[in-house]
Design goal:
Blueprint: H1 3-9, H2 30-39, H3 46-58, H4 79-82, E1 85-87, H5 89-104, E2 116-122, H6 127-130, H7 134-141, E3 152-156, H8 158-169, E4 176-180, H9 187-196, H10 203-209, H11 228-237, E5 251-253, E6 259-261
Parallel strand pairs: 2-3
Antiparallel strand pairs: 1-4, 2-4, 5-6
Length: 263
Amino acid sequence: MDKSIRAADRISKTVFHLDSPYTSVQWCLSPIGQYRADHISPSKGKRDRKRKRRENASAPSSSEDVAMPGPPSEPSEPSEQSSHFTIGLNSTTRHLETLSRASAHPPPKDPTPTPLAAIFFLRTPTSNLLHGHLPLLATTASLSLPPHLQTLLVPLHPKPAEARLCAALNLPRVSVLGILASAPFATALLAYVREHVPPTRVPWLEQAREGRYRPVEIKVVRTTAPARGTVKEKRVKGKGGRRRRGVKGKRIESAGGEAVQAT
């Protein structure tokens, strides 16, 4: 039976259950997710856009001019919450790059961007490929900051963390979330992170900043390799006793090792 028919046969009903009379604790990301749910339609992916383009191309054109509606204007997110976060890997990386440039060459007139206090990312098998640049950028972005304000990296387990982040932000996928040091509602969270998460260290960057010459190191590894004649003998035996062609009048060896006269 079709899924649409099964959905139409279902009957909606109201269920009552007991709830707490006290106000529940609201996570600091909840207002952003609620705003997106109320004002921004969720994306259905590239396949849905391609399907709509195919339908529009195959639809018969009418003689009357029809004004094509433009993309709906989406209201901006509330600045009170969203301005203190960097949601996603790209936005977090861009903010870290801006901080790194400002740390190396402070702008004379432009205000210094707000540093990131903590970056939460999902620890997956591909974390080294996706998030391998974050330790270096977090370190270079914190060069001009005191030790207690350096950007910290917090890895999260993907199973429970991803579902809660997606539900709070009303997004299908979230892998990286950065919290700026100016977030007024994350004081307790950042204090807990600074107490339990060690600062990020990049040893080779610390050694490079020393300005000391380091000679080239030659790494010696002891291993084993097959003898030179072993591979050749296996290739000869694997030919099934077939004789190799040779020049007439010269002696050649067959696969069995016997000397024969070429004719």
